[in-house]
Amino acid sequence: MNPLTRINPAELAPPTGFSHAVTATGGRLVFLAGQTALDGDGKVVGATLPEQFETALGNLLTALRAAGGAPSSLARITVYATDIADYRAHAPGLGEIWRRLAGREYPAMAVIGATRLWDEQAMVELDGIAVLD
């Protein structure tokens, strides 16, 4: 049984690519560190936001799987983007990447504009919280 319940009240605008609220019962919490588009050698890869988003999300999911979780275990994700206008412009494609890598069970999510990230070449960073059975 999944310890997460996704809640999307009819009174709020329909969510697109996120859930308005997620409750968690029982289970073990996994706190996922911020992941950018670093390859195995620690170099930022990808010249575009979608390319970097795909790598960063893949890195986050790799850490989650190593902790014993799956994409459906994600309760919360925070996305930090250095260019919100670029993020919004690519939102449909980013949604396709999300669905391909993580499926259609969306966590509670926020997108935050950041002046810059730890690695200057990084355009996006994702961190999260998961709940395991």
Please characterize this protein's 3D structure:
This protein has 133 residues and is an alpha+beta fold. It is 27% helix and 29% strand. The chain has helices spanning 49-66, 84-89, 91-102, and strands at 4-7, 21-24, 28-35, 74-81, 108-113, 124-132. The strands form two sheets. Strands 3-6-4-5 form a four-stranded mixed β-sheet. A two-stranded antiparallel sheet has the order 1-2. The termini are close together. 30% of the residues are buried. The model has no long low-confidence stretch (mean pLDDT 96).
Brief rundown of the structure:
The protein is α+β, with helices and mostly antiparallel strands and 133 residues long. The chain has helices at 49-66, 84-89, 91-102, and strands spanning 4-7, 21-24, 28-35, 74-81, 108-113, 124-132.
Helix/strand-derived category reads alpha+beta
Percent of sequence in beta strands: 25-35%
Helix % is 25-40%
CA-atom Rg in angstroms: 15 Å
Order of helices and strands: EEEHEHHEE
Q: How many strand segments?
A: 6
Poorly predicted ranges = none
> What strand line-up does the widest sheet have?
3-6-4-5
> Judging from the principal axes of the Cα atoms, what is the shape?
globular
